[in-house]
Write a structure and sequence with these properties.
α1 runs antiparallel to α2, α11 (427-438) crosses α12 and α15 packs across α16 (519-529). The strands form 6 sheets. The chain has a 5-stranded mixed β-sheet. The protein has a 5-stranded antiparallel β-sheet with strand order 14-13-12-15-16. It has 667 residues and is of the alpha+beta class. The longest helix has 21 residues, at 3-23.
Length: 667
């Protein structure tokens, strides 16, 4: 691949995963996978210096400052990151380099690296005045002072009224506190947090400090950022003084002088994993003497005097007890491993997906196998293999039965590795299809929860998605049986269903759950054909001519509209009054205000639905896409714009309000 194109692709991937980790607290890949991508980009930029851009992930810290917890505060001292190392050879090279530049008599500190998020504390005359997050690391962080004050480990007053002191430390959550929070989440019927770091990050950014206090965050200091009125010679000396002043500092640290001592300390910290009351993901190695550090130059994003050795992903062995089979809304049968519970990255896991039959066969998974389980991105547990010497010799490789586990009808294996139930009336498919239909990404019927879907199917009120729009015929029965609740709740849901009838047709098309037809494809199809009637009469060739519609999507739509069961559902939707027609958006001719521009919409817009905004942009020559990338011209942002806004800001993409867009178009 052309180096320029590969560099652009790597930057886009790294920006995406950096946004998930730093800003959304929801990583999807492991540190090792992220660092492999970063390493490839660094190598490319080293070989081709002309490819380096100021906004490259190699040139900056990964986060952006958000305004969720408070105002933005300018950094007085940069809160830089650390270079990650993964082998002893890399550690030895760092030590050799430091000793060559600073002399062999220097010492090093080796410390635990807790998996949390950075926070700086500013003290004036011994009193805490400000607490800020790392944010972008160089320019701004978020003011989280109110939340910091309710963390027990954060000292409000120092034992000595020093003129000015800025400390940097790590906010984290102990395993016990994390388990307590997740237990409460489950009691309240809310989604549990994926791991302690995500929970700590979200908690520190809470607008309500009482929530932060209740969740029992912890904190330790690992650096003196700035100080007036006192001087230290070594990092270890600063720790000793801070402890005397009532500051909680990092507990496990070793002063070392040789490579052998350093590596023994790294191994000793590694052996602590699983035994400590909190999660660690590495060991920090830093030059102990403070003044000589100035000779070790910082990079754009990393401090030069310290590095982080990252341990391999935590992996546990556990015995497979059962394989559970479930059916998705497209009929795909998914096998899930149920195994003896193990603790990984702060959470107890007892199940993970086995994907498909090929995955099972390739890993030689059998009932009774001892599985090796890791966490992908420290969030999603995954099986990475089996222990060969513990394989049960008298048990064959597990085979997914060619029968649907829900309806008992025959299943088929298609061209892919997936095994599917093809019975359109399968209850499992129906439950997931209706859940998809009423969900936010489709018809967005507020208050239509999965419990209601299950109960209404079980009681016979829903046999397909169209039955949703005739539930009002059964109002009195529903109230009497209490399926949705009392009169008030029932009428509220029926009102939301009635309102959904007027949704734009592309939402209805999305909700039908046609394979390979998501939101963008549905919009493209309806903008071109205008009505369901016209779409049902279209050929595959007609559809492929539309931008964003490929041959696979076209075939799926063509097939869907020709199946008798689906034709019956579509007729019922029409009779129920669902909106199945819209104005065709014709491609604009000539140069218009947004010709050639790509726009992403995020958040709730004032006085205009997202569909209306989409049509406004398209009529003005622009193209609307669902995700922010370097090709995005600008982001149209409303209230609660969320992660798309954060990503646009991190990429330097302009952000417009609806009012600003309307002014732009009128000009």
């Amino acid at each position: 691949m052309d180096p320029s194109k590969r560099a652009e692709e790597l930057r886009s991937l790294l920006n995406h995963h950096s946004d998930l980790y730093y800003n959304q607290d929801a990583p999807t890949i492991s540190d090792q996978e992220y660092d492999a991508l970063m390493g490839e980009l660094k190598s490319l930029e080293k070989d081709h210096p002309e490819l380096i851009t100021p906004d490259s992930p190699t040139q900056r810290v990964g986060g952006t400052a958000k305004r969720t917890a408070g105002v933005l505060v300018a950094h007085r001292v940069p809160m830089l990151s650390m270079q990650d190392l993964f082998t002893r050879e890399e550690v030895d090279h760092f030590i050799d380099d430091c000793q060559e530049k600073l002399g062999e008599e220097i010492s090093f500190l080796v410390e635990t690296k807790i998996d949390g998020l950075s926070m700086a504390l500013r003290y004036e005359n011994g009193k805490l005045v400000t607490a800020i997050t790392r944010g972008d690391g160089r320019n701004f962080g978020e003011d989280v002072t109110a939340n910091a004050r309710v963390i027990d480990d954060v000292a409000e007053m120092l034992a000595e009224p020093i003129e000015y002191l800025e400390l940097r430390g790590e906010v984290y959550m102990t395993n016990a506190a994390f388990d307590e929070v997740n237990a409460k989440q489950e009691l309240l019927g809310k989604k549990p947090f994926a791991n302690p770091r995500n929970c700590a990050a979200g908690t520190l950014r809470q607008l309500d400090a009482s929530v932060t206090k209740e969740r029992q965050l912890s904190f330790f200091v690992f650096n003196v950022q700035d100080i007036r009125g006192k001087e230290f010679t070594t990092h270890q000396e600063s720790y000793e003084f801070l402890e005397q002043w009532g500051v909680t500092v990092i507990a496990h640290r070793f002063v070392c002088r040789s490579k052998e001592e350093i590596w023994k300390a790294v191994e000793a910290i590694g052996e602590m994993r699983g035994a400590l009351p909190y999660e660690i993901d590495g060991a920090v190695i830093k030059v102990n003497e403070l003044k000589p550090r100035a000779q070790l130059k910082d990079t754009a994003k990393n401090a030069g005097y310290q590095v982080a050795y990252k341990y391999p992903p935590e992996r546990k062995a556990t015995q497979l007890r059962q394989v559970e089979l479930s059916v998705g809304r497209t009929g795909k049968i998914t096998p899930t491993a149920l195994f003896d519970p193990v603790r990984l990255c702060g959470t107890t896991v007892s199940r993970c997906t086995l994907h498909n039959q090929d995955f099972i066969a390739n890993l030689d998974i059998r009932l009774g196998s001892t599985l090796l389980i890791e966490k992908s991105g420290e969030v999603i547990p995954k099986c990475v293999g089996v222990v060969p010497e513990k394989q049960p010799s008298d048990t064959p490789v597990f085979q997914i039965p060619m029968v649907c586990p829900v309806c008992g009808e025959p299943a088929v294996r298609e061209d892919t590795a997936d095994i599917k139930c093809v019975n359109l009336n399968c209850p499992a498919q129906l439950e997931r299809l209706i859940g998809h239909f009423v969900g936010r990404g489709a018809m967005d019927i507020k208050g239509f929860g999965v419990v209601y879907v299950h109960d209404l199917i079980e009681k016979g009120y829903l046999t397909d998605v169209a039955d949703i729009f005739t539930l009002y015929h059964h109002r009195d029965e529903l109230i009497e049986q209490g399926i949705i609740g009392k009169e008030k709740n029932t009428d509220k849901l029926l009102g939301a269903i009635e309102k959904a009838k007027s949704n734009s047709p592309d939402r209805l098309l999305t909700g039908l759950g046609i394979s390979n037809v998501g939101k963008s494809a549905a919009q493209a199809l309806m903008n071109h054909f205008g009505t369901f009637e016209a779409l049902s009469a279209a050929s595959e060739e007609d559809m492929v001519e539309i931008n964003d519609i490929g041959p696979i999507s076209a075939h799926c739509v063509f097939t869907y509209f020709r199946q008798a069961h689906n034709q019956k559902v579509l007729q019922k939707l029409k009779e129920a009054g669902a909106n199945m027609a819209q104005e065709i958006v014709t491609p604009p001719e000539g140069d218009l205000p947004l010709t050639g521009q790509t726009v992403v919409i995020s958040g709730t817009l004032p006085e205009m639905s997202r569909e209306e905004a989409t049509q406004l942009i398209q009529r003005s020559g622009g193209k609307v896409t669902g995700s922010v990338s370097k090709k995005t011209t600008f982001l149209l942002a409303g209230e609660n714009a969320g992660s798309k806004l954060a990503k646009a800001e991190s990429l330097g993409i302009p952000v417009l309000t609806l009012e600003e867009l309307q002014e732009k178009l009128s000009d």
